[in-house]
């Protein structure tokens, strides 16, 4: 639900979160992530205001779960230690501390404090396609040294191809002593394929979203992934029928549109742009009369990182000016 929050412009209701959490918990899903799409503290004018405060949503999810751990995402600087403590107080048991793939050093404080609070802690290296493998390994090692129990390769842009996933997970497997996770986006329609490669190379924590309810073209579609893994003979203790029912009956009706790969999400995978920029680029495109694809391509050229949503407005305004001048 945390990544899906982007798709609904952070307008989840308490009842929606309760129903999805209860369904996932009942199906046997071990972790359920709830918070603003941009993580704790993300409810701002810059990233989009939440309809219901994330602490209330976290509490609602915790109360709906019998076995699943409720997870939160925290991007240092957007969320602070204050929000982390509050989330733990409301029952969140796992935090994923997320940084751009080259900026792991800013996660030290949050990882340390989360461990002190008794939370399970993972590092989450975003835009993993945008740095050389050696850099990714170096940064993952930093997170390990701060106390992370797992580090994720996060394909924020849905830009990684299967061999690139293989290379990254393999290198981490050879260099780390902790678990490795993989977070896919389906902008190039390879989220499930990439996830299978990650598993093959030794990743043990895998993200998904029902009906692909995640930013851009969404994540690996959880119910599809579970069906595939089941057919591959892996028993991961999740009830496929129950999962399908939650996807169909609860998540489907929440979605503003079905998650097909449309031109906006495709261009993000192609240009290597943050999946959560899609809605912002579409809005800016309308406001300034510019094709959102041109905005996304330019934002990609400028190597924007998560948190730089304001750059989308700048780029749209500049492109509109150029268009007017006939450039
Ligand atoms: C803006 C945070 C982002 O949505 C985190 C994430 O899921 C990703 O980088 O893919
Ligand atoms: Mn994501």
UniProtKB/TrEMBL annotation:
E.C. code: 4.1.3.39
Binding locations of Mn(2+): 3, 183, 185
GO molecular function, one term: manganese ion binding
Residue ranges annotated for the Pyruvate carboxyltransferase domain, each copy included: 1-244
Keyword Cell membrane in annotation: no
Residues involved in substrate binding: 2-3, 156, 183, 274
Source organism, top-level taxon: Bacteria
Keywords, ordered alphabetically: Aromatic hydrocarbons catabolism, Lyase, Manganese, Metal-binding
Record has 4Fe-4S as a keyword: no
Alphabetized SUPFAM superfamilies for the sequence: Aldolase (SSF51569), post-HMGL domain-like (SSF89000)
Residues annotated as the enzyme's active site: 6
Known catalytic reactions: (S)-4-hydroxy-2-oxohexanoate = propanal + pyruvate; (S)-4-hydroxy-2-oxopentanoate = acetaldehyde + pyruvate
PANTHER family given in the database record: 2-ISOPROPYLMALATE SYNTHASE 1, CHLOROPLASTIC-RELATED, HOMOCITRATE SYNTHASE-RELATED
Family statement: Belongs to the 4-hydroxy-2-oxovalerate aldolase family.
Protein name per its UniProtKB record: 4-hydroxy-2-oxovalerate aldolase
Classification lineage: Bacteria, Bacillati, Bacillota, Bacilli, Bacillales
């Amino acid at each position: 639900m945390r990544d899906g929050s982007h798709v609904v412009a952070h307008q989840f209701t308490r009842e929606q979160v309760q129903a999805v959490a209860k369904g996932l918990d009942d199906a046997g899903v071990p972790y359920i992530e709830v918070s603003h799409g941009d993580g704790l503290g993300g409810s701002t004018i810059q990233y989009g205001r939440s309809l219901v405060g994330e602490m209330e949503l976290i509490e609602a999810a915790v109360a709906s779960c019998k076995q699943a751990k409720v997870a939160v995402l925290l991007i240092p600087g957007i969320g602070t230690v204050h929000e982390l403590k509050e989330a733990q107080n409301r029952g969140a048991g796992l935090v994923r501390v997320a940084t751009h793939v080259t900026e792991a050093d800013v996660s030290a404080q949050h990882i340390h404090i989360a461990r002190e609070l008794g939370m399970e802690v993972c590092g989450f290296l975003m835009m993993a396609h945008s740095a050389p493998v050696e850099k990714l390994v170096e940064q993952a090692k930093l997170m390990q040294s701060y106390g992370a129990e797992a580090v994720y390769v996060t394909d924020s842009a849905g830009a990684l191809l299967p061999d690139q996933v293989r290379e990254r997970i393999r290198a981490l497997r050879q260099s780390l002593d902790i678990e490795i996770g993989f977070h896919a986006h389906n902008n190039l329609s390879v989220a499930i394929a990439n996830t299978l490669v990650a598993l093959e190379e030794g990743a043990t924590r895998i993200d998904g979203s029902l009906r692909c309810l995640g930013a851009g073209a969404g994540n690996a579609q959880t119910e599809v992934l579970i069906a595939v893994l089941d057919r591959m003979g892996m028993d991961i203790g999740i009830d496929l029928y129950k999962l399908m029912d939650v996807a169909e009956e609860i998540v489907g009706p929440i979605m503003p549109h079905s998650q097909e790969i449309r031109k906006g999400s495709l261009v993000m995978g192609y240009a290597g742009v943050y999946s959560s920029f899609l809605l912002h680029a579409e809005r800016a495109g309308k406001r300034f009369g510019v094709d959102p694809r041109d905005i996304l391509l330019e934002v990609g050229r400028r190597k924007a990182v998560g948190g730089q949503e304001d750059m989308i407005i700048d780029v749209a305004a500049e492109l509109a000016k150029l268009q007017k001048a006939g450039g």
